[in-house]
Structure formats: C-alpha cells, structure tokens
Design brief:
mainly beta; 6-stranded antiparallel beta barrel; 221 residues
Length: 221
C-alpha cells in the first residue's frame, strides 16, 4: 500500500500521516497517526498516545487520511489492536462523495464576516457583520448570522479563535448553501478558498485538539 496512490488524488499513505478513525456511520472513534504500514495493514497510533477502547477483530471502520495532496476516506476492518494502536487492513475506497465530506466538528465561536464579492444579482459588498461558527472542518464551516448572504457570495471571515492559546484564524470562503430563516437568524454553509498550507496545518491541528478534548471528556463520564 505504501508508495501507491490511495485514490485518484494521488494521496500516498505514509508513516506520520494524520488519520481520523470512524464508525461506518461517521462517528469519530479517535484521532491518530500512521505508525507504520506492514503486512498489508496500516497501524494507526492514538495521536497523544492515550488508551484506546477495546475493539473486536474484524470490526468495520472508516479512516480519513490527511496528506499534502488532500485527504482520502477508506473503509476497512480492524485486524489487531493494542492499548495504544489499531491495525486496519482490507482498506478500499468509499464513495466519491465522501471524499468531499470532511468530518465536521461542532463548535461555538463568535466571528465577523464581510461579503467581499457578491453574485451579479446580489448587489454590492457589505460591512462587517457579527456571525457565529456552528461547526468547522478542513474544507469549510457552517455559520449563522442575521446578515443576509446568498449562494455564491464570497465572504471574508476574521477573528475565528478556535483555541485559547492560538492566534485567531481568517478565512476567505464562498457561500455554497443558504438555510432558512429562523427567529431572525440564517445558516450558511461556506467552503474555504485559497487556504494556505500553513493555515491548513494550523486548522487541522486545532480541529484535532478540539476532537481529542471531547473524546477525553466522553471517556471521563
């Protein structure tokens, strides 16, 4: 498997690559890194070396691997495990639509958004408007706002503070979906545009950190 493209995006699985291990229903189990690729299987170690839940052999899972060429979702089965690592084999491609469906992390972060480029029917650009991030992924975010945006609008977002110790993020994105109004607030599904490799790495680090904290809290209950 190592040295061969895992999918059409030429993503090659390598040790050190970040991975999200999920149930077939896309529920996150843990965030990890590829420890090694050996004997037809991928060994995925928990990212912070935390203890993993017990697992039955042949349990079906989905794994999203992240690399410089993007990400790929593969489905497989757990063929071995330790307290710190699962071995997954029989990996194969899932549906193409899942390649675009990044795992979404629910959050609640106040931001400001400005429409910097409107569609032809949308009129001119707007002023800064208060918004709230409802969830975020490596590919985009869901926001709510009393401001009216329409599909196709390009929005500049600033002040997205995902982690207390990290600098806030700024994003350029495009509205891909506009939800229905509810109590004066609308929801907008936005896709990132021109996200630099550095900001992609920072964003993935922030999302993984939030996920790990939620998993830790879930284990403590």
């Amino acid at each position: 498997m190592s040295g061969e493209p895992a999918e059409k995006n030429d993503l090659v699985l390598k040790p050190g690559m970040m991975a999200e291990v999920m149930t077939p229903e896309n529920r996150l189990i843990y965030v990890g890194k590829i420890d090694k690729i050996q004997s037809g299987g991928v060994y995925i170690r928990e990212a912070k070396d935390d203890t993993l839940p017990m697992v039955l052999v042949n349990k079906p899972v989905k794994v999203r691997f992240y690399g410089e060429a993007g990400s790929v979702v593969l489905q497989g089965k757990v063929c071995g495990s330790t307290l710190k690592m699962w071995k997954v084999d029989r990996l194969e491609s899932t549906f193409t639509r899942e390649q675009r469906a990044f795992f979404r992390q629910s959050i609640s972060v106040n931001i400001e958004g400005r429409c910097c480029k409107r569609t032809a029917r949308g009129g001119g650009s707007g002023v800064l408007a208060p918004c709230q991030v409802l969830d975020i992924s490596a590919g985009g975010l869901l926001i709510s706002s009393a401001e009216i945006f329409i599909e196709g609008d390009h929005i500049q977002i600033s002040g997205a503070s995902l982690l207390p110790a990290e600098s806030p993020f700024s994003f350029n994105c495009q509205v891909r979906r506009a939800g229905e109004w509810e109590k004066g607030v609308n929801r907008y599904g936005c896709q990132f545009e021109s996200l630099s490799p550095r900001d992609q790495d920072r964003l993935l680090h922030a999302i993984f950190t939030i996920q790990r904290e939620e998993i830790r809290k879930r284990k403590a209950r």
